[in-house]
Amino acid sequence: MHKPWQHLESVYIHKEKWFNLRSDKVLKGNGEQMDDYYVMEFSDWVNVLPVTTDGKIILVKQYRYALGVWSIEVPGGIMDPHETNPEEAAKRELLEETGYSCQKMEEVAIIAPNPATQNNRMYCYLATGCELTHEQSFDENEEIEVLMVTMEELKSMLRNNEIIQSLHICSILYALMKLETVVI
To answer: How far apart are CA 79 and CA 122, in angstroms?
Structure first.
């Protein structure tokens, strides 16, 4: 039987407000020591698939500099340092990015963005009964356009590879399973 790896020590290479990069020394399950195992420390993230009271899906479109593309996504983002409740963070992100509030918020999955090199989790939610209640309120580096689509348009976007952000696709699929529009 394989044993979990043991942490021996860490050296931080980079620390800043969005993420930390550390180099760990570990003892692998087979007893071998491995130096320089790199880990990126991120805050936990939240994603929300919002459905309005009239059945429309709320998506967002924003520029993603690293890839140089306009990306169609679901509302979401990092949990602020003071936040301990992912559902409250999801409600905040939904409201800030879209101006919509929801009647019901359900957790549909907790996923690991990349457990080989990242220590964070993404909490995926389905928000139903969404209604426009506020103006959008962006973070300092956000420029977001709200898109309203039908369920069939959303499924078409997925089939046509128009939504490329893998974590958002995963969140959407879990929410669609909850809505029983996708069966596995």
So the answer is: 10
